[in-house]
Design goal:
15 helices; single chain; 56% helix; CBS-domain; 372 residues
Amino acid sequence: MNSQDDNPRQTQRAPGSLGLIRLFGIPVRFHFTFWLVAVWLIYIGVTAKQSIAGSTLYVLILFLSVLFHEAGHALAARHYGIQTLEIVMLPLGGLSRLERQPVPSEEFWVALAGPMVNFVAGGGLLAWTYLQGAMPALAHWQQPTDANLIPRLAVANLILAFFNLLPAFPMDGGRVVRALLAGSRPVEEATRMTARLGTGLAAMIGLYGLLSANFLLVFLAFFIYVGATQESMAVSAQVLIRGALVREAMITDYRTLNHGDTIRDAASLLLATSQQDFPVLAGEQVAGLLHRTALMRAMASDGPDGYVAGAMERDFARLAAEQSLEEAAPLVKDGCALVFDGDRLAGMLTSENLSEFMVLRQIRLSAGKSNV
């Protein structure tokens, strides 16, 4: 599915990703570490009874299972009119980037769709195994061979489904639990309750991993803990900016560059101010936005006498001054957007001043509570 969002910051390539294919119209990209892990898994899978071809086929189908798991999320989201910006394949699984957060009734089915794909795949492969007069056994993993590839894939899909249903963020099970809890309480409270559940689960898994010297379980516990913390922080941030407008958080004291300025002029302005991004004007109109990283690249490639017009981003992020800050926040994550009041440039919204706005609002809210 192709993104219909006009904002380039929401559709840009995920950092570190290589390659691009499309599945059901959805861009699928692969993080470079994904390829490293894939090669490593193929290498360790080669034994006296399993050929390179067999090991490669096993790893390929296993990763296809993960990919179709993510496609399940994407197709369920499409049913609710939510577009998937991209699917990124990572060493520990996949990540579907949706254009918006589903509401609880939608999130339940979107989250459940991925594991259901693996349940269907695992059940189908398991049925095929039994029809062939065989059955999965522990020996298949102790001595993998080309002959027992199907039983191993069947069980791997079932394990993948059950693993993703663990009731903790960032797994699908955590999102299912939040959706169920949100039926009787605010989403923020449901998120915090699910995060606490995930933290407790991480503590138990981590303790068991330490006692049994199983450091894979310790890593899993850390992964769950970080996911729970990040989700809780994200929902806290949403609460802080809820009801606010972009106008309330934007920068109004900023410097601009002219279309004909050189990279030397831009570098001097970068050193003279604390500003990292500069609107580029052509007369009264905004022609582009020059980011600090683009300025550095232009200085290295074109030299100080190059022009900012050749380095600026022309398809930059635009926001309206009266736009909801909650809606605008994802568009300035780790970046900058220009704010317009009609056709007039009114300000800039950056990730840094958005964070400062949330800190100040938290202080005001805390002060208000202490005065009650």
